[in-house]
C-alpha cells in the first residue's frame, strides 16, 4: 500500500485535491482503479486536517497519513513542541507512539527515541515519514509496549505514555484504570525501566481523581492552545514525596503564558465589590482550580467564593481576558430592560442560576458586538450583570 500511495501520479492527485470537498470527490470515478478509492480519499481528508495542526507534515513531500481520526486525536505541533521542552536526556521510549508527532519533537531533546506502536501498518507509516523528515534518532517498534520493554530490557531516562481514552464499547473514560495501557497498575513495572514517567491524559480527567490513582506525581501540566485545554501531562518520579506543582500553560499564536501553583497550598483570596476592571482566568487556570492562587499572586479580589471572576481598580497584565466594567446592573427586570433586552452582546455566566441559552432567549439577545455581559453573583450574594468592554493589550 505504501508503494502505491507514493506513486507520483497518486501524490499529485492528492495535492491537487487538498481544497476539494471530500463528499463531492467521493461521488466521482476513482482515477486509480488499482487502489481502493476509500484509501485515497482518506489521504486527502487526513492531509486536509493536518494543514493547520501539523504544518511540517502537511508541507513535506511524500508524507503518508493514517486514518483521519488519528490526525484528530494526535497532539498538534504546538503542544508537542512545548511538551518536549519540559524534559530531556539521553533516551526516551514512547509506549503509545501513534502518528509520532510527540516523538518528532522529543527527538530534538534526546539522543535516541524509541517509538512503540501496536498497529504494524501505522508503525511502518511513521518510520517512512521520519525518513522523509530526515529524523535519524527515532527507532520504530511494532507490538505491545510492555512486551517491547521486556525485549529491549534496558533503562531509559524517560518513559512517555498516552493511554487510550476509550472503552471497547466506546464512551468517555473518566479513570486511568479504565485506559489502555492501565498505567496505575503498570507503574511498578515501568519503574524497572525508568525513574521518570510522563503521562498524557485527556483534559476531561479530574485532577484529584488522577492524583488518587497515581503515585509519586511531581508536576501536573495543563496545556491549553488558544484558550482551549488540550491535554494534561503528569510528571512522575520514582519515590517522589514532595509538593505537587500544577503548571497552567496557555499557548497563543505569538506568546505563551505560564503559571505554577502548589497543589492544595493554603493561598489566600481577597474579596471585593465590583471595581473598575474585571478578569476571567484562561482555560488552563480554570482547569487547575487554583483560584485562591490567582487572587494572591496577582493581588486582585474575587467577586464571590464561587464566581471565579476577579476585579481591581488598577489594570494589570493578566493570564486570561481583561475587561473594563462600564455598568454593574442588579439582575432585576426593570433595571435590565433598557440595558440588555433586544441587544447584541457576548454573554458569559459564572456562578449564576440561568444558562447562557436561557438568558439569550429570555432577553432576546443576539450574539456579537463589542459588549461583553457577565451574569454572576457578587460578594453579598446578589445576582448582577456586568456590562464590559475588552481592554486594549
UniProtKB/TrEMBL annotation:
Entry annotated with the keyword Transferase: yes
GO molecular function annotations of the record: methyltransferase activity
Keywords: Methyltransferase, Transferase
The keyword Methyltransferase appears for this protein: yes
Boundaries of every PG-1098 ferredoxin-like domain copy: 277-319
GO biological process, one term: methylation
Residues of the THUMP-like domain: 320-390
Name this protein carries in UniProt: Class I SAM-dependent methyltransferase
Species whose genome carries this gene: Flavobacterium chuncheonense
